[in-house]
Each structure stands twice: as structure tokens, then as C-alpha cells.
Amino acid sequence: MIAESKSRRIDDDVQRLLSEGRRDEAATHVLRQLGPEVYGFLVAAMGGQGDAGEVFSLLSERVWKSIGEFRFQCSLRTWVYVIARNEMSRFARGSRRHAVGRESPSAIAEVAAAVRTATDSALKPGKVNKLSMLREELSMDDRTLLILRIDRALPWEDIALATLEADGAEVASEDALKREAARLRKRFQLIKHKLRRRFQQEGILG
Questions:
Q1: How far apart are CA 55 and CA 100, in angstroms?
Q2: What does the alpha-carbon distance between residue 50 and residue 3 come to, in Å, rounded to a whole number?
Q3: 149 in helix, strand or coil?
Q4: 133 with 198: CB under 8 angstroms?
Q5: What's the CA gap between 139 and 147, in Å, rounded?
Q6: Pairwise CA distance, residues 144 & 160, whole Å
Q7: What is the pLDDT of residues 6-35, one digit of tens each?
Q8: Which of 130, 126, 129, 139 lies closest to 198, judged by CA?
Q9: Is 121 helix (H, G, I), strand (E, B) or coil?
Q10: Alpha-carbon span 176 to 45, nearest angstrom
């Protein structure tokens, strides 16, 4: 998980690159710094590396196309998770985002491939236990909520941005975010209750 101090440094570095007109470098920096964590999230949420790899490629293109319009009203880390959640939803619906404008440079595809390769090597299969098996019983949306809140420790408002499926991380109103965050907290409690019940059935908890 990326520390808040590192997240701020990434924001500062990318702001500087954008102010200098170095958009391609800004996009590749985002992918190098945030890509491993977000790709790991996709693998966990989608239950495998195959589909996650395709979604990560779509995410990488979206980062490159959109980085110039980002206004830093939230962190880049949050923004990339918003894109990841949106691309996951589109993939699950069988839809694809049509490319607009010039094609992304080969450097973007190369960085995305390097991130996937390095992260796949780090994600070596471990011992499957009952906890991980029960988590896999959840829907993709519920797994996503658990990962973002527990594994990635994102604030509720940031998770709300990701689940509202806005076209960008800076368009949702404050009231909409508060309502969505409240809904997610309630959903989170229901998921925890469901898992606790299953843990008891499997003898994990007394």
C-alpha cells in the first residue's frame, strides 16, 4: 500500500511534469509509481491475472488520454482507482471505451507491460486458506469494496468516487459523495456480517 507521503510526492512530480508540457512523461510516471498497486487490486478484485491484464491496459490508455485534464482536486492515487473501477465495470458489461484522438505512444504500452510482468512475479500463488476462499464467494463489487477499504485503506469519500462511476474523479458533487459514502458504509457492515456468519459455519470463528 502506498503511504500518504509518497502519494503526495507523486502528485507533486506529476504536476511539475504537466506544467512543463511533458504529458507523456507524466502519464508514464503515474503508471510506474501507482501501477503495481492498482494492477494488484485488479487481480484481486477480478479473481485472476488474465482479465485484469486487459483491464490494466485499458486503464493505462485512459490515464494517458486524461492526465492533461486532471485538476488535482483529489489525489492521483484516488483518480487512478476511479479509472480502474470504471474500466472494470465496462469490461464486466462487455463494453469497451472507444479510443479518441491520437494513439497512445508505445512507451505507455511498454510501461504497462513492464508493470504487469513485475507485479505478476510478485503475486506468486500462496497457500489457499479458508479466509481467501470465503472472500472469493463474494461478488466482484463486494470484493472491490473490501479491498479498497481494508487492503488499500482508502477513505470512504475516495471509495465513493470510484463506485459512482463518474467520467472523472472531479465531477461528483459533495452531497452525492456523502450519500454514496454512507451507502457504502452500510454495505460494508453487511458484507462483514455475511463473512462472519460464513466464518462461523466453517469453524474459523467460535
A1: 17
A2: 28
A3: helix
A4: no
A5: 12
A6: 12
A7: 999 999 999 999 999 999 999 999 999 999
A8: 130
A9: helix
A10: 25
